[in-house]
Design goal:
By secondary structure, this protein is of the alpha/beta class. 34% of the residues lie in helices and 16% in strands.
Amino acid sequence: MAGNSKPRGAVRKTARKGSSQGSGGQVRRGLRGKGPTPKAEDRVYHVAHKKAQKAKRRESGKHDRFADGSELVVGRNPVVECLRAKVPGTALYVALGTENDDRLTEAVRLAGDRGIVVQEVPRLELDRMTGNTMHQGIGLHIPPFPYQEVRDVINAAQNSSTPGLVVCLDNITDPRNLGAVIRSTAAFGGHGVVIPERRSASVTGVAWRTSAGTAARLPVARATNMVRALKEFQQAGYQVVGLDAGGDHTLDTYDATTPVVVVVGSEGKGLSRLVSETCDTIMAIPMASWVESLNASVAAGVVLSEFSRQRRVAGVPSGTRAPGVK
């Protein structure tokens, strides 16, 4: 009879008495809070994050480094600053149809004076080279920095007429700090700077500019292992001095007229444990009690200035030019 027929294959479900299968806690977990929503800039998929990354690259004046270690500095101000600081460049790229102004004219002139190839490229090609960064129609290609070995720095100091003075950086990740330390080391008669191979700032276009060209004249070495590098200096007759606010010695009482390595840590993390244990002396810089710490490059500059003063007073010859420069 119509209405009484059952679909073929249909099965009537009957309720079971007793306990039934639960959700396994899924409903309860689903209702649990997930914490505060991250800021838009911190969400990698959000357009605000991408804009923040572009702004950071624009502020630093560079694009991501290429596989061979070279990089492309972009933006009219950063490029002009690099060329003024005599940062070594291999090519200056200018996008076709770029509106001319004083900065672009100066960049092309400086590149021509230094024999750097000026090459016009389609704007889409420059977009591809820079990953669509705001390049303002100009980019300067910088080759990989020629790092030296720790032994090269030791040899350069031995061949000079002054006791060795070297700065080693631990946990320094800001290239501006690195560039400023290179500049201070050169200014106060130092013989070189040593940085770790990993987890450290490297000599990029930003560091080149901050060093005001001294990176081209002062040896910068990369150490695979900083502790081993410090022990190599100790074997060569150096005293290794680590800077820390809780040091047993102060800058006022330390004698720096002998070969010395100054180890500088970051403002936040300070010296790593193994590096600190390797130092012969942990030294503090006297300063007002309410000031917690100094910027790494400022601390290095203060110590280097005092060491240079001590050597002048003691009649120790001070370096008047960067080692290895004729």
